[in-house]
Amino acid sequence: MDRGWGLTLDSSDQVEFFANKPGFDRRRSGLVMFPSRVEETPEHREVDFFAEKTKKPFVKNEDSNPEPSAARDFDVNIGLQLVTANTGSDQSAVDDGEGEDKRAKSELARLQAELERMNVENQRLRGMLSQVSSNHASLKMHLVTMMQQKASTQEQEIADRKCEDERKDNGGGARQFLELVPEQSNSVSEERTVSGSPQNNLDATRSKRTGREESPESESWAPGSKRLNPTNANQQSIEATMRKARVSVRARSEAPMISDGCQWRKYGQKMAKGNPCPRAYYRCTMAVGCPVRKQVQRCAEDRSILITTYEGTHNHPLPPAAMAMASTTSAAASMLLSGSMPSADGLMNPNFLARTILPCSSNMATISASAPFPTVTLDLTQSPNALQYQRPPPHFQVPFPVSAPPVFGQALYNQSKFSGLQMPKPVNDAPQLPAPAQPSFTDTLSAATAAITADPNFTAALAAAISSIMANNGNHTPNNNNNS
DNA sequence: CGTGTTTGACCAGCGC
DNA sequence: GCGCTGGTCAAACACG
Question: Helical H runs in A245-360?
Answer without folding.
Answer: 320-340, 350-357
